[in-house]
Design a protein that fits this description.
This protein is of the alpha+beta class and about 450 residues long. It has twelve helices and four strands. Strands 1-2-3-4 form a four-stranded antiparallel β-sheet, with no helix packed on it. Strand 1 and strand 2 form a beta hairpin. The longest helix has about 70 residues.
Length: about 450
């Protein structure tokens, strides 16, 4: 079974190398597949739904709370005369908070900020998934080209080795020349094996990142990005999901301070009950309760200080996040410029190296060049071609990494052919804390059932 699996993997890699471009996936198709098949996205969408429910729970604290109870008692009194009595009571009670010093509303607003921050976290996860898919796609393409390059190198060196043997037979070269050609051929074969291994690993990464095995990959052009690093940084500071998430965290922390401070305010609630006993005697009561803390051992003061410390930590986190995003933009921009420069120079290097290689081979055929000269010229051409492949891949990845650093590597911005997830749809269903028997609650049940079947 192990041998069969290895053979199947090798066959897949060979098919990737030989697959015609017409049958290859486009980058947009790969990104769409990654978006549709990501378990990590599903996980974070569930976390967003959990945050949405936090708003519903905060809203529920401002609505009436109605409870029911049934009780039955049997009492036996031992005395000179034994007496036994039975009692039963049915009771419905209700409680409604009329005033809480704004604490309940602050709790709702704070949880809304948590929801908005979680939405930005989901955007960040989406960007990471799409960037990983880009890297996997480009890596399959580049490793495929490296395999083709190594295969061609083996063919060329095989011809050089045979030519050296023929020239040795007629006394034009020595055994040293044959040994040099043979050593280069053996090295080329080992490098081909390494390239095939790299392709196999790239295929495995593609399957995980995209959600299916690749059918090939076409050449990827660099994504259009900002021409100025300062413009890119300014845009990223305004739009990157990590920064927006941190800003909502600060806003939530500020509201939690107000919520903690409001807990010292008096609390007014309306309460009442209706009950009936076993003799059908009914009792009803309606009243207003007003109360508040006088002394609680410094608990409220400690909670206020704690929320302020959390606010300060959130502000520091926002500052660090902005610095990190700006650095990420700068790194991606520098990598993109370096890759562009390397691609341009490698194209010139290839032209010169190919001309040199052809000339050295012709001169070697006339006896004015050695076998080592030919091998060195061929190696320079190979290095130049490898540099161009690497530069093209680095340029494509760096351009999409820059989009990610700016907060633009999303299905919406890339206009991917997918059904985009609406982060507000579930929130709109639960924000008013609907009960299960309501029409909205039944709609929620259908949504959750559909999610569970996916």
């Amino acid at each position: 079974m192990i041998k069969r699996s290895k053979l199947a993997l090798v066959a897949l890699c060979v098919s990737l190398v030989a697959a015609p471009a017409a049958k290859a996936d486009t980058l947009a198709e790969a990104l769409a597949s990654a978006y549709n098949n990501s378990g990590l996205l599903e996980q974070n969408r569930a976390l967003l739904r959990a945050a949405d429910e936090g708003v519903a729970q905060s809203v529920a604290a401002t609505l009436p709370v109605i409870n029911w109870s049934l009780s039955a008692d049997r009492t036996r009194v031992e005395s000179p005369i034994t007496a036994t009595s039975n009692s039963a009571l049915a009771r419905i009670s209700a409680d409604l908070v009329l005033y809480s010093g704004g604490a309940n509303q602050f709790a709702i607003d704070a949880q809304k900020e948590v929801v908005l921050g979680t939405r930005q976290a989901l955007r960040g996860v989406e960007q990471n998934i799409l960037l990983r898919a880009v890297q996997a796609y480009v890596n399959v393409r580049s490793t495929r080209e490296f395999v083709q390059l190594r295969q061609n190198n083996v063919r060329v060196l095989t011809q050089e080795f045979r030519a050296a043997q023929e020239r040795f037979n007629v006394g034009e070269v020595t055994r040293t020349d044959i040994a040099l050609a043979e050593a280069r051929l053996a090295s080329a074969r080992s490098l081909l094996a390494v390239a095939q291994g790299d392709l196999a690993r790239a295929v495995e990464e593609y399957a995980v990142a995209v959600g299916r095995t690749p059918s090939g990959a076409v050449t990827v052009s660099a994504a259009p990005v900002s021409r100025s690093m300062s413009d890119a940084k300014a845009f990223a500071v305004r739009n990157h999901p990590s920064i927006l998430e941190a800003q909502h965290s600060v806003a939530a922390a500020e509201l939690n301070i107000l919520r903690a401070e409001a807990s010292v305010q008096p609390r007014v609630s309306l309460n009442g009950f209706v009950s009936t006993d076993q003799d059908s005697n009914e009792t009803a009561q309606l009243g207003v309760t007003i109360g508040g803390p006088i002394y609680n051992g410094g608990l409220i003061s400690s909670q206020v200080r704690q929320t302020r410390a959390n606010r300060d930590a959130a502000r520091s986190g926002l500052h660090l996040t902005m610095l990190g995003v700006e650095q990420e933009v700068g790194n991606a921009f520098a990598s993109l410029q370096a890759a562009q420069a390397l691609r341009q120079s490698s194209s010139q290097q290839i032209s010169a190296a190919r001309a040199a290689f052809d000339g050295v081979r012709q001169e070697a055929a006339l006896g004015s060049r050695t076998t080592l000269d030919v091998l060195n010229a061929e190696q320079e051409l190979l290095d130049a071609q490898a540099n161009r492949i690497a530069a093209q891949s680095d340029e494509a990845v760096a351009s999409y990494a820059l989009l990610s650093a700016m907060g633009l590597l999303t299905a919406d911005h890339l206009n991917l052919p997918v059904q985009q997830y609406d982060p507000a749809a579930y929130y709109n269903l639960v924000q008013n804390a609907p009960v299960a028997i309501s029409r909205q609650g039944q709609a929620l049940d259908r949504v959750l059932e559909a999610i569970g079947k996916e």
